[in-house]
User: Which sequence fits this backbone?
């Protein structure tokens, strides 16, 4: 997958994801089915640079995201809490994702057990729509974005906080 990059090798900040309704084309070309450079038909070649974190159980009601502009770039999972009966406190997570041009590339885990996935993404208000183009899908969600952090509030109870690298 090729993303718009500046001469310094970073992702072009002009490609941030803002409220575009459900029009994915307004955000960029999205994800191709497979990364042409990925071996054996894998979804992408993203390297997991995240440090493992321990999941936690949230207390009370699951919060809801407030929206914002999702900055393009590489994000690592920095916190995860699950609300409700699906909580499995103490589970270790190690996840990295790259967001650019209407595409989210993600890798969960490392080595032979890594799960790679690509999703076309768009936003409307505080809603984050993720349409799987390769690999396992993810549920509907709300989100809150700042310049350095993205928090995703999945339907079903998981709240993941991602720190931009």
Assistant:
């Amino acid at each position: 997958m090729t993303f718009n990059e500046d001469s310094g090798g970073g992702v072009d900040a002009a490609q941030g994801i803002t409220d575009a309704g459900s029009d994915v084309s307004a955000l960029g070309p999205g994800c191709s089915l497979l990364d042409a450079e990925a071996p054996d038909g894998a979804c992408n070649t993203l390297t997991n640079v995240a440090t493992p974190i321990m999941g936690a159980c949230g207390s009370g009601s699951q919060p809801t995201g407030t929206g914002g502009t999702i900055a393009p770039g590489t994000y690592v999972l920095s916190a995860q809490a699950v609300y409700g009966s699906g909580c499995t406190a103490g589970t270790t997570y190690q996840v990295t994702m790259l967001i650019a041009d209407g595409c989210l590339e993600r890798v969960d885990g490392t080595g032979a057990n890594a799960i790679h996935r690509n999703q076309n993404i768009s936003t409307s208000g505080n809603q984050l729509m993720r349409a799987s183009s390769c690999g396992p899908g993810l549920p509907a969600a709300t989100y809150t974005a700042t310049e350095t952090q993205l928090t995703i509030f999945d339907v079903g109870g998981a709240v993941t906080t991602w720190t931009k690298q």
